[in-house]
Write a structure and sequence with these properties.
The structure holds two protein chains of two kinds. By secondary structure, chain A is an alpha/beta fold. Helix content of chain A is 30%, strand content 20%. Chain A is globular, with a radius of gyration of 22 Å. Chain A starts with 34 loop residues before the first helix and ends with a helix. In chain B, 36% of the residues lie in helices and 19% in strands. Chain B is built from 20 helices and 26 strands. In chain B, the strands form six sheets. In chain B, strands 12, 13, 14, 15, 16, 17, 18 and 24 form an eight-stranded mixed β-sheet that branches. Chain B has a six-stranded mixed β-sheet with strand order 5-6-4-7-8-9, sandwiched between helices. In chain B, strands 21-23-22-25-26 form a five-stranded mixed β-sheet, with helices on both faces. The relative contact order of chain B is 0.09. Classes of the chains: A alpha/beta, B alpha/beta. The interface between A and B is large, with 57 and 75 residues. Strand 2 of chain A pairs parallel with strand 20 of chain B.
């Protein structure tokens, strides 16, 4: 009987010594084929690849199918599934309490652009340092397929109802309101989405990623502008997205006439190869113009539209102490007796 | 309205002192301007004098800058050792509408509103006629001579003053003459009411301590008014002040500043708010204090304050911050609290700490934004849909605004739930005397939080499990570096391990635990305060700003009707067992509410033995004016007399 010792194959680990398993979440309860599940996979892979400790991540969400998905990735991270349309405020408070944490929010088109529009735009104004993902399928899934404010005009529900109101163009809005990293991708484009997520992790400021994520149950039919088929036919990348993380050497030179190289906050490099005439991700006006043009043409423009690495993020603007406010000791949060004595004198 | 300025010994509440009151002395005061030789106020010695027991009302328009002048009057009398209270009745408007500031001077120490005005300073042409017609006979009136008020009545003492001329005489620019005019009436009133000019001067200097030029200008105006009164006016009304020793060591402060101070000493770290009357000054004062005392040596702040886009966002930030481990708070009022309803339920169900100061104003809807009320009690007790219940603290003085401002943060973290502090406009925005505040004697209590080391020792934890039998579970903070530290916070149904569950038993167990946690809260919140012998037949239950009127009313009931009462002041919801015992022990209990729907009365009814319910009688006051003693004495005496 052969007794050759079989060495266990060494498990693959990332740069902080964790396996991909350490980034997994619970079993999904979303429909088979739902775009959201693919996005969950890309998110956990990106955090694994970047070597981010799961305990340093807060997963925030509102209400809806998309907002359930944080349960399906990175169980070792701290998760807060809040109320409908109000994730931005909860995320803001959490980051004020502990600015050393990373924050990723997962929302939907209804949670963001319908009920949540009020809080969403103020999150952008503040440039809160978080990744805000909109899993965009144009409909409310949990309530069985009503249109959201991001459904395109003329798109058709399964029952034949046609949407006659214009869609909120969330990417133009995000650029105008102050987000500092804005892009769109498609749940079916593994390479583009992964690259954009990794770049998002390297950015400090509000990242808005509008990810078209077809609803296989309520909005994947002919007449829908958020279906797999529609995306396969109308996906128009504005540029090719490349990414070199800070912990890897840059080995390929780039040609400035055809590419833009953006140095991100952690030292990583975002490489954008121009596919569109006039594409300049540092130019707000140009980015908005491009988005509006493509919309008129019925294309779905994808890629990184706008990046600003200079604008200060909200937690920096508040000039807080370096440590998390949450765990400051009493000596630093309760002034001494002499302070009360001084105040009492003022009011005497 | 009162005992005639008598010769009876009078007990000063809160001081333990008995003072002999006589109406004979008439202290000389001086403007220190070399006018000592001028005639002293010529008073008719046979006239009755009423010393240290009257109310002054100053009628102005808002935005005219009268606040500083009124504050000088209030504090000068206070510094003479005489108990005072100051109430501002103001419109919901920026400038140009009528405003009345009332100073009650009371040797007895009564500080509740007294609706009877004894001395009017009529500076507002628009309301002057009505203000004068409302006075009782014998009252004094200082007025701008151009208003011709003396023709209105013959039973008042009128003191016409050429305010424009006197203001011009100060040499102040035309631009600020309007402001200076206010200080002129301070001088006129100081002379007529015998307010010691030495204290007026000190008060003006303290008030303008950072602006010496303004201090001189204002002082000059005061002196011009004083001298004018001394030379041109003959004192004929009976009201005057006389130095006492009843305010030594005390402070004057409003409840919002007191609450802010409490929050700072509680170690608040995250503040999110949206401006709304009458709560805005809670956060504005807090920002001032924090800038002075919570910026570290390197210039960095040990706190964050965010003006949110609305109250939904404010409470969302508070709960997000509380979840992540900060001591977080917001301050708001009725309409803002309504907007917070959904999040309040999340806070209850997901068990998130946070402190919400509700400075109540009159509702429903926008209501009367600048009038006081206790109308949010019932709503806040169950704020949000489903079986939600909230812990509420009910401060009854500015000192308790401070103390509960601290305790609310401890309770929120100990109980892992939103804690509401219900103050009101009367307590929050008016000027109250108080004993000085005490430095907290307990360290900050952060509640049941597990560290990475704890998790290693325990091997893990279940977020919503009742480990200790008090129904309060353990939590971890985001960022705790341990693979077992994380959990999923949600407003959806969950089991002990914080995983999603629609199982009937999981739901019921969790809700029953939350109910038990509320019972734990009963034992942790500030208990009620009993005043009286405890063995009377009649009891009074009240809360919040009603306290001062109740104290005075109990005195009236004894003196005028021979009715001794016991008084239990409720200081928190859920109620503690002392309240149940109090009701059980008394034959009749009057429950005082400053709202139409007898909200405290009804909350108590739901909490006590059915057999005791018939003992309760509701007394309501809800016209937006702060409660006065007479509004209690009259119905209680009538009801007791009718028996």
């Amino acid at each position: 009987m052969a007794t050759t010792a079989v060495l266990p194959r060494p498990e693959k680990i990332n740069r902080i010594g964790l396996q991909i398993l350490d980034y997994r979440g619970g079993k999904t309860t979303l429909c088979a084929g739902c775009g959201h599940n693919a996005i969950s996979e890309r998110i956990l892979e990106a955090f694994y690849d970047m070597g981010v400790s799961p305990e340093s991540v807060m997963k925030m969400s509102g209400i809806g199918c998309s907002s359930k998905s944080p349960a399906y990735f990175m169980s070792r991270s701290f998760s807060f599934n809040s109320v409908h349309g109000r994730m931005p405020s909860v995320a803001t408070g959490a980051l004020l309490a502990n600015k050393t944490m990373r924050s990723i929010g997962v929302s939907g088109d209804g949670d963001t652009a319908s009920i949540g529009m009020g809080q969403f735009v103020h999150l952008l104004r503040r440039n809160l340092p978080m990744i805000y993902i909109i899993e965009d399928n144009g409909v409310y899934g949990l309530t069985k397929g009503q249109f959201s404010a991001m459904a395109d005009i003329g798109s058709k529900l399964k029952n034949g109802v046609v949407n006659d109101l214009p869609a909120v163009d969330i990417c133009s809005l995000a650029i105008q309101m102050g987000a500092t990293f804005v892009g769109r991708s498609f749940s079916g484009d593994k390479k583009q989405l992964s690259t954009m997520l990794k770049a998002a992790i390297s950015h400090r400021g509000t990242v808005v990623l509008d990810v078209i994520s077809p609803c296989v149950t309520f909005n994947d039919h002919i007449g829908s502008t958020k279906s797999y088929k529609f995306m396969q036919e109308h996906d128009e990348p504005v540029g090719e997205v490349g990414f070199v993380p800070f912990f890897e050497d840059i080995t390929v030179d780039y040609d400035p006439s055809t590419s833009v190289d953006v140095r991100l906050h952690d030292g990583s490099s975002l490489r954008l190869r121009k596919l569109h005439e006039g594409y300049d991700p540092a130019d707000k006006t140009e980015a908005v113009r491009m988005l509006m043009d493509s919309h008129h043409k019925g294309e779905c423009l994808t890629g990184v539209f706008y990046v600003d690495t200079q604008k200060p993020d909200f937690t920096s603007m508040l000039n807080m102490v370096d440590e998390p406010l949450a765990t400051l000791p009493e000596e630093r949060t309760r002034p001494g007796r002499h302070v009360l004595t001084e105040l009492m004198e003022q009011y005497s | 309205m009162n005992l005639a300025a008598g010769i009876i010994p009078v007990f000063i509440p809160g001081t333990g002192r008995t003072v002999r009151v006589e109406g004979t002395n008439f202290p000389m005061t001086s403007s220190n301007l070399g006018v000592q030789s001028l005639a002293a106020p010529a008073s008719d010695p046979s006239a009755k004098q009423i010393v240290n027991d009257f109310s002054i009302q100053i009628a102005t328009v808002n935005g005219s800058g009268s606040q500083s002048a009124n504050n000088v009057l209030l504090r000068s009398i206070f510094r003479m050792g005489i108990p005072v209270s100051g109430k501002n009745l103001f419109p919901s408007n920026i400038a140009g509408l009528p405003t009345w500031y009332t100073i009650r001077v009371s040797k007895f120490g009564w500080v509740a509103r007294n609706p009877d005005i004894d001395f009017l300073i009529a500076m507002n042409a628009e309301t002057a006629r009505e203000d004068v017609l409302a006075l009782h006979p014998g009252a004094g009136v200082i007025y701008d001579e151009t208003l011709n008020l003396s023709e209105l009545r013959t039973d008042l003492t009128f003191y016409p003053v050429p305010f424009d001329k006197l203001a011009a005489a100060t040499g102040a620019d035309a631009k600020i003459r309007k402001l200076v005019k206010n200080m002129v009436y301070v001088g006129v009133a100081a002379h007529l009411l015998s307010i010691d000019m030495e204290w007026v001067e000190k008060t003006v200097r303290k008030q303008f301590s950072t602006k010496p030029k303004a201090a001189e200008l204002n002082l000059n105006a005061v002196r011009i008014g004083f001298d004018h009164a001394a030379t041109m006016l003959i004192k004929q009304d009976p009201y005057l002040v006389e130095a006492m020793n009843a305010t030594e060591g005390k402070i004057i402060i409003d409840g919002n500043a007191a609450a802010a101070m409490g929050a700072m000493f509680a170690g608040v770290t995250v503040v999110a708010w949206y401006p709304i009357t009458p709560s805005s000054s809670v956060v504005e004062e807090l920002i001032d204090y924090m800038k002075d005392y919570r910026i570290e040596e390197d210039g960095k702040a040990s706190f964050a304050v965010v003006q949110a886009e609305d109250e939904l966002a404010a409470i969302g930030m508070v709960l997000g911050a509380g979840w992540a481990g900060a001591r977080s708070m917001t301050a708001s009022s009725g309409p803002g609290i309504s907007l917070m309803a959904e999040f309040a339920g999340l806070g209850y169900y997901a068990e998130l700490p946070g402190v919400i100061f509700d400075i109540q104003r009159i509702g429903p809807s926008t209501g009367l934004p600048t009038r006081t009320s206790q109308g949010d009690l019932m709503f806040v007790a169950g704020l949000s849909h489903g079986d939600t219940k909230h812990v509420i603290l009910l401060p009854g003085s500015v000192k308790e605004c401070y103390e509960f401002g601290i305790e609310a943060f401890n309770l929120a973290e100990m109980l892992q739930t939103p804690v509401f502090v219900l103050s009101d406009l009367d307590l929050g925005m008016n000027n109250w005397m108080s004993e000085p505040f005490e430095y907290p004697d307990k360290p900050i209590n952060r509640g049941k939080v597990l560290t990475a080391e704890d998790l290693t020792r325990l091997g893990g934890f279940a977020r919503y499990k009742d480990v200790d039998g008090d129904a309060i579970p353990y939590r971890t903070l985001p960022g705790t570096e341990h693979p077992a530290a994380s959990y999923f916070t949600r407003g959806t149904g969950h089991n002990e391990k914080a995983t999603y569950s629609e199982r009937p038993d999981d739901y019921e167990n969790n809700m029953n635990r939350l109910a038990r946690k509320f019972d734990t809260a009963r034992t942790l919140v500030p208990g009620p305060v009993l005043e009286g012998t405890g063995s009377e037949k009649v009891g009074i239950i009240a809360f919040g700003s009603s306290h001062f009127a109740v104290a005075e009313s109990r005195d009236q009931l004894v003196r005028e009707h021979g009715l001794a009462t016991d008084y239990l002041r409720i200081r928190a919801f859920p109620f503690s067992t002392e309240m149940h015992d109090f009701i059980a022990k008394h034959e009749r209990v009057y429950v005082v509410d400053q709202n139409r729907d007898s909200q405290m009365f009804n909350l108590i009814k739901m909490d006590i033995d059915a057999a005791d319910v018939i003992k309760l009688h509701s007394i309501r006051h809800f016209d937006g004016m702060p409660l006065d003693a007479r509004s209690l004495t009259t119905p209680i005496a009538a009801h007791e007399g009718a028996r």
